[in-house]
Amino acid sequence: MIRRLTLLAALAGATVGQVHAADLTISCGAVGAELTLCKEGVSAWEEQTGHSVAVVSTPNSSTERLSLYQQILSAQSGDIDIMQIDVVWPGLLANHLIDLREIGGKDIADGNFQTIVDNNTVDGRLVAMPWFTDAGVLYYRKDLLDKYDRDVPETWQQMTETAEAIQQAERQADNEEMWGYVFQGRAYEGLTCNALEWVASHGGGSIVDEQGEITIDNPHAAAALDQAAEWVGHISPQGVLNYTEEQARGVFQSGNAVFMRNWPYAWSLVQSENSDVRGKVGVTTLPHGPKGSSAATLGGWNLAVSKYSKHPELAVDLVKFLTSEAEQKRRALEGSYNPTIKSLYQDKEVLAAVPFFGKLYDTFTNAVARPSAPTGNKYGRVSNAFFNAAHDVLAGNMNGARAVSQLQDKLERMKRRRW
Asked: Helix, strand, or coil here: 127?
């Protein structure tokens, strides 16, 4: 028997075509290593249980993926039993997700970082299981810093100066494609993460504070955006305005960038056998502004079960398997995905495979959260307004002061009396 995922295909625009009937359907990756690791984990569960699972890919853009999920769930469609959801989505999607403790047991999340468990608990219901956590980090070319006798930068200004000097020297040495810095500059959720790091590390706050007060209109936030705008066309290519994580990684991994902001997943890829920079890369905390401290946006993904699933017990069993200690360790070793289980940060094999997991442990446990909790179901609109304002500054359409002032007004109207 064959069934067509008509709603999914129509909304995603993906070529999912027809898939063989399966006991479960899961969305747990878009492309590349992430999707491969998911398929491998699913295959192991299939062999162990005898059940079958259809793995469907979704848009790589987190913004597009959220829109897809919202439309599928609003239609009360059971096309996807298990969904991979961003750390900022539990509150947005909670009404459509089952309480994992009801089926999986009260201890289902024991051993995971409590902050993520709390993040995934809405009105006392655990609506998503932690799968891997994330925080932005700075990748740098160790060989080039050594070659030009430069230190690993601690401030954005130091990074800018080092990037400019090495870029210029390399181009004079006939490496005309060299750039100083690549990041995620496209107008999407990834830019919210980057721009929040710039703003927070300049002492400009977190857009909306924990009490729900809008704080973005301040000179530190404006200065952070203005500094980032100076990179475009200078130490960053003009095309960075359309870069997501993979475009940035592509430039860096091909040997054409000194610095890159990305997530930990990129480590295993830049160190792979076919990487042009294998063995030449270091990872450190992101730089900070003149009066701030390093800030890394909290990222990460979780697994949730749709309340419209026809097989919720089976779905929870697969979620427990994929988020288990053994599976998280495999993903850390093979893909450098940050575990959410605390004990794995003392695991010798994990630390040998990804040394910076230990060195940057505090970065991962003290990352800056996006304001999804205080803004509730309006977070998507808040983020959209923020990344569009940041993109306008990067593109040279307005300066930082005007952008944060207009953003403040827009968010005030969005909030009205309360979130």
From this structure: coil
User: β-strands 2-4, 82-86: how paired?
Assistant: unpaired
CB-based contact 53:22 (threshold 8 Å): yes
Instruction: Report the C-alpha gap between 178 and 191 in whole angstroms.
Output: 23
- Cα separation, 194 vs 135, in Å, equals 10
Find the length of the chain.
419
Rg, the chain, Cα only: 21
With tokens 């993926």, the residue in question is 65
Residue-wise pLDDT for 69-97, tens only, equals 999 999 999 999 999 999 999 989 999 99
Burial class (CB in 10 A: 0-12, 13-18, 19+), 326: exposed
192 and 370 in contact (C-beta within 8 Å)? yes
Element containing residue 301 per DSSP (H, E) = strand 298-305
On the 0-12 / 13-18 / 19+ scale of CB atoms within 10 A, 23 is middle
Separation of alpha carbons 21 and 3, rounded Å = 6
Per-residue confidence at 10, pLDDT binned at 50, 70, 90? Answer: very low
